[in-house]
Structures are given as C-alpha cells and as structure tokens.
Design a protein that fits this description.
With 492 residues, the protein is mainly α. 66% of the residues lie in helices and 4% in strands.
Amino acid sequence: MLLNCDEQLFMTYKQNGEKGAEKLLSKWLEAESDVQLDPKILGIALSPNLFLVNEEAAMNIAFSTARKYWGRVSPDMQTFFDKHGLDTQYVNDRLNAFFYTQKGKETFFEQLFAQHTMDLERLIWLIFGKRMQIAMPVNELQTIFLYKFENEYFVHMIYKEDAQFWHWLFMKKVYSLFIHKPLEQFTFIHEMLSHFEKSTRKTYAHVDNFVDNYRGVLDKCITYVDNHNPTCLEKKQLHLYQIVTHYCLAEGDYRCVKALITSFEADWRYSMYALTEKEKVLIAYLLFHIAHQEKDNETVIQYGEYLLEDERLNNYAIEILLEYKELLPNRKPTPPAIIKNYDLNFLENLYAVLLDHYVRTGRYQEGLKLLKDNALASNKKIHATLVQKNYSNEQFIAIEASVQQDIALLVNNSLQHIGLSIEEWRRHYRQPDAPYYFVAQSASMHMLNILKVLFVTEQYELFEKLMEIYKKYLLIEDHFEKLRVFISAYVS
C-alpha cells in the first residue's frame, strides 16, 4: 500500500531520476495555498500534510505491507526455518495466527510504535520467540519505519527493489519534517537522525567528499531549525546529535567538535534544560578521546578520572548506547583476559588509555592504584595477585595459564589443544594480515605499560614473572625496545 505522493514520486523518479522528482516537488510547492518558507537546503521539501496519516491509516498501511511481504513463507525462507527445527505447517500456522487476527495486528503495531522500526529478523523474533538471521529474497521489503507527531504518524517502507529511491524519499521526508514541524513534536531525535544519515549515505554514496557535504547540510539544517524554534529540550537533543556526528566524522581534526562543545555548554549551562549527568558524561567521554588523539596528557587524565569516579561512564553507558549505538564500542568485557584488543570495549579502552597517560606523565603510583582498584585494568589473576600481594608460584602459574587460555580462545575459540593454538599464535601474531594482529599490538602496548608501572613501584616479583610471560607469548620487538630504553633511562 503506497501513499499517493509516494506513488507519484516513485513513477517520476524511475522515469526522470532525482531531478524529475525535484521538479514534481516544485510543482506541489507552487500549488499550495499557504506556501511555507522552504530554505532548499536539501532540495525542495514536501509538505508533511502529504505523508503524515492518522493512527488507523498508519496501522493499516504498516500491517498490510508487512503481511503482503512477510506473511507467507518462500522456499528460501523455509530453508532457514528448517535449520531451526520449524516445519512448514507450524510456520504457516503461526504466521496465519499473527497476520489474520486483530490481536496480531495490535501486537505488531505496539512493537513497531515502541521500536520505530520493523524488519524480518525482528518480526520472526516477535512471532516465534527466536532470533534468526534471515536473508531476505530479492525484491522484498527490508524495513518499516514509524514515528509519531502529536496525533499523526510518519510511516515509511524501504524496499530492496529501487532501494535508492526509497532511501532518498525517507531522507526527504525527515528533512521536510524538521523544516516544517515544530521541534517540540519530535521524539527520539537521535534515532530518527541516525536513520536519516544511513539513508543519506545510501542515496549519495557516489558523491565525492560525502562526509564534508553531509556535515555541511546537517549544520545548515540545525541552524535553520534553531532560528525557527523556541528553546526546548528537543533543541538540546538536536545539538548533542550534531556534536556526536561531527565527532564520529571528524577524521582526526577535532577543532569543530571542541568549538561545538564549548558553545553547547555555554548555551545550556544556565537554562531550564541544564545538562543532565548523563549528558555531562557523554561530553566528557568525547573530550577524553579527543585529548587522547591530540596527546593532551593532562586532559586525558582529568576526564578519565572523572568518568571512572563513582562509575559514571558505566552507570550511563546503556542510556548513551541506546541513543548513539555506534559511539561506545560495546563488545562484552572480558576480565579474565589480558591478551585482547582493548579498543573493543569502552571500559577496557578507558583503563588502557588512562594507564598509558599515567605512564607518559610519570604518575606510576596512580597507575598502580588503577591496577589495584580495577580488574579490567589488567586481568583477574594479575589484579588478585596485586591486591593480595600473594607472589606465590601458584599465582604466577595461574597468570600464565590465563594467558594461554586467552591465546587458545583467540586462535581456535576453544580451550582444546592449547599447545597447538599457542604454536599457531607464535607463528602469526606479528604478521599484519593475521586475524589477531591488532589484538597482539593492543595487548603488547598495554602489557608494557603495566610492566613500567610495576617496575617503578618496585613490584619486582610480579614484574619479573610478567616480563617472562611477555617475552614468551607477546614479544613485539619495537615495543620491547622502548621498554629496554625506558628501564635503562630510569636506572641510570
């Protein structure tokens, strides 16, 4: 089921491309009796009256479209169900019970309203209670979007066939909503704009300097929205999205991000919408990583300690992840492991970066305290040894065993045949094309920082054992040379 405007734009786009569709939009704009100001930042906007619908229409459009494309099982899809032990009759019975009952329709709409998107994988989980990766056949429905604006709904589909058009139209509609609707009617701004960015990338993937163009369009839109809306909570959310987007697209130059943060903090510090603790943590996290990239040791330590104090980052990480899914690397932390890529989990990365800057600034006692206070700053076995000061042979054997287990899990994802895994690791971990090369690089640099802290703070027994383990399993010559130089300079 297509809206009239969608159908007309689709036919025009297929025949005459984006330029033809823009001409049609221009005619529609001229025909409006109450012509709204259109800044033409991203071409010509649609009037929201053309595509916003009431609740009943939104429910019917979304559900009937889902039933048409997902309410029957193709042979390819049945193959996937067979792998999960679901036979054809059972699958069809469940689909019919869902798609041809009022209860199924209500459940579908409730989930779509709560999540704002629906795809086949999520639908299968909803109906069957199983999470399965389903590869959709060609020419099928990919995603349904739904957002509410007061008593109206924005519903939009992305189809695999002519996907570029559907992404272009989604992008155009979101832009039009920001231009023509009061900002206070928006909910989940971060999520909508994240979808907007993805559709923009799909639409203009062929354009040179996409990042610069996208940032320019985003800034112009936000400036326009700023000038045409009163101060409100949604405006603050929009500015935060702008900051995070510039950070993610910075490509090493963070001057604009820092300027946006400075302006943001000044604008909102004394307003009725003053920064929440979560927003302060988000800003501190960005500034922490910017300072690390710029090798600003004191600022890294300042924000790193702030984020660890009272477990601030950990306490707000889930909320930040819900709004900015790609900002925090969120692979599950592994406290038992010392050999791992510390960039893949936000807390492990925080400890590794902070320890690195303690070492750079000669704050070895602070580094030792960090290692004693947090198992994620080293690993459980090293942490336990430091805390208990139990430098027994059994403790050292346990540390080495944990390193061997790390290697076995990295190489073969199994603790069987640990010896063979270690042999393979030793042959390949220094090679740039090896799958665990970056793990070895990250773990080596972090282990050497731990060794420096232990040496200077005179934890010699543990230092010697970890040095033995490092040379046995993780030696990277240029890293190790820097440690030799460090120790020579320290003792001379």
